[in-house]
């Protein structure tokens, strides 16, 4: 990775921290500690399940919200503040700017997830008084959540490279929702015939398949995750993010910034 | 005092007063519409829709619905309800959202099956719930045990109870009591002996303290039932032999040559009232079926924390 991309990525990370993005950790800590203490009083025999389900769901949702709302501003904010012109007047290529922004935001989310993961394990330790082997699967779920973030960051960047922040947020969130129904879309497509089937199936495969990354329920019940799923999901997330980023670079390269 | 300080104090005062008043107002609103929250949730009663609407976070949604089911059952039970209309839908939503949530089948079945006020009086729905659980978790012997439990205790269908226990007994790691239960069902041995074996198995295998306490209470009640049956036989034998009813338990004890007077598990005496054997304080044993005065209405069963001997 070039030094210029690293510089842009680290600046993006610093800016996110300056914008107090990591303050969400306080809300997360309150949520999880409250659940760990209270759930035993109001339910039966699901303390551990709640800590894992709530913890990982919160990690995922907090991260998605951050990815969307920071991601959509990455380009527009630079244009609005006119700092983009300063950056591009230096020996920085437009694609390096986009890729740097992507790594900066993804890095922010990885750091955020790291602290939240500590919170999840601490809450689990509080509830169960010990950690057991199958709990290590939580790390796999966290890894899949980070892969989800990569996809969302790239989508937010793609939309923000040509659209307004508001519309970018709507588009990104809509794709997240559609992608969560990817399996259903394929089932619906399979019910059609002829050309419609091909088009519907193509569209169903084209949307990002977020449902493949959600293993929270399985992990909460201590079920193992296949190594092949980890490998396939990793490859899929990398390829899809790379494709979307390439799209963002294409759009941004040809965008008239005057 | 400068103007900035005045603004700060005023804003802080308004914040505290307005927030406090708002909270008090909210409590009044809650009193006006106490069941609104649950009603709103059940407006969406389709498990399939809820699963899709959860965007993949169905595990957490299932936990929320399970907690709601427990809260609903607890609240209605506490209010001595005679029907639990929302319990079955809440449990069905929970298990559709998370088919691996075993607690919802095990305890949910026990909430649904017993007659009111102890439960919802819907053993058929409980069977349906457990059969769905077995379909999704065929290797969980506890579900077969709960199913057999309901067939035996609530539906009195010994053949199906035997089948459920026998299927569960075949599973790896199944508790040995399942095989015993299947055999008891097959031989149709005395109901009290079978019930004791069942509740003993529940007591030994349950992980939740409340469930263990509940099983223990049933075991205590069974002991009282058996005592009453035995004492009633003695009273009847006395009448046949002497030609009149014994005047007291002491007279019966002396005639039978007992070393002491029989006592219930709390140490209270058994009484003879008009030739019937009764416990002194039936309210102490919420699950007894014998030894109560005529027209006795039992209080709703509560968890009594009695230390097991």
By CATH reckoning, the class of the largest domain in chain B would read Mainly Alpha
For the secondary structure, the number of strands of chain B is 2
Strand order of the largest sheet of chain B: 1-2
Structural class, from secondary structure content of chain A? mainly alpha
What percentage of the residues of chain B does DSSP assign to strands (E)?
under 5%
Structure commentary:
The complex is a heterodimer of chains A (258) and B (309). The model of chain A has no long low-confidence stretch (mean pLDDT 86). The longest helix of chain A has 35 residues, at 94-128. Chain A has one domain (3-253). Chain A has 12 helices and no strands. Chain A is mainly alpha-helical. The relative contact order of chain A is 0.14. Helices cover 79% and strands 0% of the residues of chain A. A two-stranded antiparallel ribbon of chain B has the order 1-2. Chain B is built from 13 helices and 2 strands; from the N terminus they run αααααααααααααββ. Chain B folds into 2 domains: 38-206, Tetratricopeptide repeat domain (Serine Threonine Protein Phosphatase 5, Tetratricopeptide repeat), CATH 1.25.40; 207-309, no CATH class. In chain B, helix 5 runs parallel beside helix 7 and helix 9 packs antiparallel against helix 10. In chain B, a hairpin with a 2-residue loop joins strand 1 and strand 2 (276-279). Chain B is an all-alpha fold and 309 residues long. Chain B is flat. The A-B interface holds A 39, 42-46, 49-50, 52-54, 57, 60-61, 177, 180-181, 184, 210-211, 214, 216-217, 220-221, 223 and B 52, 55-60, 62-63, 66-67, 70-71, 98, 100-101, 103, 107, 207-208, 210.
